[in-house]
Protein 1
Amino acid sequence: MARLKRELSWPRPGGVAISLAGAALVVTGVLALPSEADSLLPFGAAAPAISQSPTTPDTAVAPASPPLPTGPGTTPLAASQQDAEAPFLLSGAGNSLSPLPEVTATPLIAGSAAGSPLQELFASRTAPPMEKALWDINSPARPLVLVNKRHSLLPQRYVPTDLVVPRVLTGSAEHPLLRSEAAAAAERMFAAAAREGINITIKSSYRSYDTQVSVYNGYVAAKGVAAADSTSARPGFSEHQTGFAMDIGDANAGTACDFASCFASTNAAQWVAVYGARYGFVVRYLPGEESVTGYLAEPWHLRYLGVSVAQDMKVRGIHSYEKYAGLPAAPDYK
């Protein structure tokens, strides 16, 4: 009986050995298997290595991720930079961050005012792509050139290099000439009007510097300098010399209102006032803009500026190119 009691109270040596080995396996298993908490360890923290053998645990652990490099050529991200809203740019080595440089707004259209509708049109990319060399209101070779009493052509004896004869009706003995781009647009516009029974004609188009001398002197002789300056440009200050301007007539209305205010009542004048912008033309001198343009209203004088600019001016309700370019009025010569 005493012998049986001793066997039941104390495990045999063999059982003790088995129990100790099992406990070791359990402990080893706990260390070897990653827990859910381990998978959420922060970046760079040491994580336990998985055992390669159930009986020979690997006590080595994975090394912590190296810290951000420091020293020459590196710039650790400061706390103030971490909170900044400005974008950051990686250094050439790819191991440092620095704020992107501020972008300074530079006018896209040379010569026009920053923030003007003309600048906004091209900045918004709603204008069709074109060579950036064309974005200049100072060069007489560009469609955007501005010509008024305070903004002459440079050089003043400028002659366009691509003048062509537009295939349209003419209403005078003058030989019509326009820049190739303006001529093609005029052909499309005149054809569209003709389909509606409106026959637009060209009365005057490109004029050379010497021709403008004769035209202007004729007005001076007839009306005096002050009156001439309100209806005719001085040589070197005329839009006609650019090859982007033309005076029109109405073949169905006779000649009584040619170059007169009553031309505004003709079908041709009313049609181009509504649809001219579709083809890149604006009526350059409108009523109410005399103090800006320096000229009396001329419903017959059309200026080619390109479809995007002409349509944007129409949509915005801006009636002078000076205002559209954000530039001062030019009521007289200075």
Note: The CA atoms of residues 150 and 218 lie 22 Å apart.
Protein 2
Amino acid sequence: MTAVRPAPVARVRGARLSGVDVARAVALLGMMAAHVGGVTDHLDWADPSSWSAVVNGRSSSLFAVLAGVSVGLVSGRTTPPGPPEIGRVRARLAVRAVLIVVIGVALMLLGTPVYVILPTYGALFLLVLPALRWPRWAVFTAAGACALLSAPFAVAIVPLYADTGSFEQQLGLVYPVVTFLTYVLVGLGVARSGLEGRRTQVALLASGIVVATVAYVVGTLLAPIPADAGNAFPGVPYVSEGSTAGQAVAQVFLSPRDHSSSIVDVLGTAGVAIAVIGLCSLLVDGRARTVQRIAFPLVAIGSMPLSIYALHLVVIAAVPGLPQGLATWWWFAVGAAVFAMLWQRFLGRGPLERLVSHIAGTVGR
């Protein structure tokens, strides 16, 4: 078969954006590091030995922002369709959402020591459906409102999970819906901005860096992470015993701790996600064939995120007592790349992606 050189992605409207796939791979590899890499619990920029903790919180938030980007890409990119096509798009996304929840619950039943994000991920697909035809400014405004409500909502739902086990806590507590709806809306707004354009890519990179830097600096100065934050539960704010009212309010709303659901945490992680998407798009999309070849392992992983995510949890469940550490993460990363490249080369779309797409596609027919 004669190879045909693809046209530069940035010049083809509707072409697959390889930079987004690379960003998805970064998110997936980051979550693998958090699950099997033996990373430290908290990030301290003054302590290089803790820098591996950068994957905590930021990988799952990048994954959620990219969920919003995916929703935006399949619903018209910068120009969503009107009726009746938008109705079919919403119906297909609703079916995808239900299937993702089912797959997520099945993975939870494996009993791995990992908080599974997919049930929340699927629910977010449903919640974002009304926003598909909103103007970009309205999408970002809604994301800002969710960021402000994130901490109060996370605190409010805690009593609902009293005396529950790990299974129930994965359904909305570890990944609070309002917090992660912020990320999905941000991703939808990013997709509506036109990821193909170089100016947009540079703007995303620059704005993401600025937002994340300002957020973390403010949070570190006004609400330093308590020494006993190791007792904190992921997804909800944490206040140390003996804190004053002012310190408690600062920890709830301004803590830079990962998975704290504070405004600083949400804005900081969203900023990191935006910067990663902008950087990956800038480095890969529309570049020469050599760059595409170098990026192919990451593109392959990112083209089947649902399959790779599920597969790595199946492996964790199948190998009890899996050692935590850098070597284990490398095995997972290389295994994911080899699997994804071979599958894409010979079979095309990822297995779960193909299944979900086939079932959802019946809605259109």
Note: Residues 1-13 have pLDDT under 50 and may be disordered.
